[in-house]
Design a protein that fits this description.
This protein has 560 residues and is of the alpha+beta class. The protein has two domains: 243 residues, Periplasmic binding protein-like II (D-Maltodextrin-Binding Protein, domain 2); 221 residues, Dipeptide-binding Protein, domain 3, CATH 3.10.105.10. The chain has 19 helices and 15 strands. The strands form two sheets. Strands 1, 6, 7, 8, 9, 10, 11, 12, 13, 14 and 15 form an eleven-stranded mixed beta sheet that branches. It is globular. The N and C termini lie far apart (75 Å).
Amino acid sequence: MTRYRLLRIPFIVATLTAFMLILASACSSSSDSVESTSSSSSSTSATSVPAATAAPATSVPVVVKPQGKLTVALTDLGNETPSVWQEYAFGKSYMRMLFDAFNGTNDAGEMDKGNGASKEWSMSEDAQTWSFTLRENIKFHNGDPLTAEDVKFSIGLMTSEDSVASYKTKVTASIQDAENQITIVSPYEIVIETSKPAAYLNWDLSDIQGVEGLVQPKNYTETVGIEEFANDPIGSGPYKWVDQRKGDFMEFEAMDKHWRVGVPKFKTFIFRVIPEESTRIAALKADEVDVISVSRERAPQLEKDGQKIFSKVGASVLGLYFHEQYLDESVWKDIRVREAFNLAINRDELCEFVFAGQCTPASVYPWPDIAPGTDNSLKALPYDPERAKALLSDAGYDGAEVAIRSYPRADVPEGPRFIEAVAGYLDAVGINTKIIPTEYASYRKERLAHTLNNGSGYLAAPNRPLAGFQGVMRVLNHSEGAFTSTKDPEIDRLMEAWEATITEADSLAASVALYTYMYNQFTHLTCCNMSISYATNDQVDSWDLGKRVWDDGFTNLYQP
């Protein structure tokens, strides 16, 4: 028995050896195997394996998913409360990632039925009845479908009395009562009856302005409450909310796939707030961040240092506001004082020395000369300090203090330097100026409260389509506008006539009439049409700034 068992051992060893050689041979046929170092006998054994036993090659589809992390650093994010009733300014740069718009626009800033929740819309001949049909495949991040109920709810929330959405007054001019003016025909059909002709209502309820057209979920918002919603928001956009520390960062995580954009490019996207430019630049060079907003002055040197610079020409027009000029005690109630302020400023020098030549003197505000709807014969006012002094004397200016708020903004990081330069020009003609450093959010609250008597601050109005500027003009200049400084009945009349137009030709003519009047009234201190620049590290091959308002580089978050 023992001898029989011993005789079997070599046979078992030989069998196992042959099996191992066959297995090794099969493994070596894999494309990712290391090169074989077996002996010639092993090679002979490998060749003895029948070809039929080899697995046929199969093609495996490549699944594209979001990968990596992108960090963008800005001076501020405006209001850091992600809700459709509280946004202003740069909040849109993250809000459009989190939410879908009722009506969409494309990268050229044009209305596009392929990019919004509404896939079809139509307007009555009198421009007072709008019908919309929604897509049926959009879901919020909690799985709930986006329906007409959510659209109606969001418009009602945005137009409510407590809302501080930037351009809501353009919408409330035609929709004062969302509950009764918006009819839900079916879960995916909605009709809006406006109180006056509203030929641009689809624009007003799109993503071209701020957040007025964005849609947030009704059921979830009502369940948690609007305040708690801002702490843990849910949208239907390509990125979902992760975390936030106000004044520091916001973090988002990409959906694997999204109906509007396909596959997001980056798995994680982070906004960081870094107010100081030198700190932003240091963070970029250390690869702590990938993209930064950069002043026009610093951009050329950064490019020499090897950073990539991407600019948008004619991005915005910069100007100074004369707040509460309608008050009897205001220094600006007298048109001669307003003209003197405009003549005291050397726009060419400001462009050259503050903005590194990345701008041109501007004539009207808030409309860049390159945009449609303005009269190109209106030229930027000349630098004439002697004429400014004479006008101040004629007006009886008595040296009343003018307080100018100074703050950085994401689109104007050199804002404090700009205000210092402006104050210097004003001081030179005898105006008693006082610079008050503040934060843009604080300045905005003062503007909303209309407590800036003899106060001033600057605003860079981003370039946008003709319809988009109707909203800007109403908010900033109509008597009912949230941020108005004028309260001029003639401005109101001209603006309402513009808003009532239906054809593009009539709209252009009406806008020219409005801007010509404001130009001749010196309603603002218009300064310059500006470019805007961003710097990137090697991870970012390009940074397309597009033509939408306040979402510069937004399209870079998606796969090409």
